[in-house]
Every structure is written in C-alpha cells, then in structure tokens.
Amino acid sequence: MIILDEHEIFSLVSLSIANLENLRLWKNKHRNSFFHKEIITTKQQLEWFNSYLNDSENQMYIVMLNGEAIGCMGYRFKEGVIDVYNIMRGVETNHEKFTMSDAFKLMLNFINYKYQKKISCVVLNENPAFNWYLKNEFEVKEEYETYSLLEYNPKKYSKNFIVKED
Question: Could you tell me the pTM of the whole model?
Fold first, then answer.
C-alpha cells in the first residue's frame, strides 16, 4: 500500500524486503533512542521481517521523498489501542515543503480515519525526539522511571491523503 499526501510531495510505502537493510541500518544508528539497544544483525532483521509478514496487525512504512527512502514509521494493535513505533528519520533532508512531522501526521490521520481508535506510543524519557512527540499533539499520560506513555490528542483530523494499492 502507498499513502500519499494530498499534494503528492512524499509518500508512505509499505515495508518490503527491498527496504529491509535501510530499516536495519537506521534502527542500529538510532538504537539508543529505543528499548532494544543491541546491534541488529541481518539475520535478526530477516527473522523479524518474516514474523512481520504474518502479522496483519502490524504495519510498517518507508517514508519516500523524491523517490528516496528517508525514514520509517509504523503502527500495531496492542491491547485495543494503536501503538505507533519506530518513527525515525534515516537520511537527513533539506526539503522546503517536507518535514518528518508531515509524514507522521499523514500516518496518524490515515490511522484515525481507518480505525477511529486511541493512538499512543511508549517513548524513552531520554529519547532526543521526546519533545518532538509533544509538538506533534501527543500528551504524557503516564510517566515511569525510564519511559513515558504518550497519547495522541489532535486538535482536528482531516482526510489529507490518497491511498493506492501496490
């Protein structure tokens, strides 16, 4: 599946084996921002991908800008709530009409439009992007020693996307 923003500047493309190595490299590069801190091997990434393919409640997208994979983001169903995860920029860009917040809000709008369920995420308190989530309309719902549960609380939703099946 491909989710395009209404202006078709960028898109979210369903994860495929072609993007697996990028995902692994990005995750390893930013591992200190995640719960899993060990280096992920190619074999481990492939094992994860095989289980991912069999999990209809888990969606991962590659963020594409001008035909280049620049990041990723996903969501999964967890205890009746939608948990967004692995939100990360893999490649720095300097595009005047695009930010990762744009891609994130596109995915959040798509999720809300499709499922109309609570959206949350668990973020390490030391994650450099913690405040970025707050700027993107997440609120702290529960705080723990090393992480916080955040919940999406947008001012409004909009159907600002186009979906294409690949």
Answer: 0.89
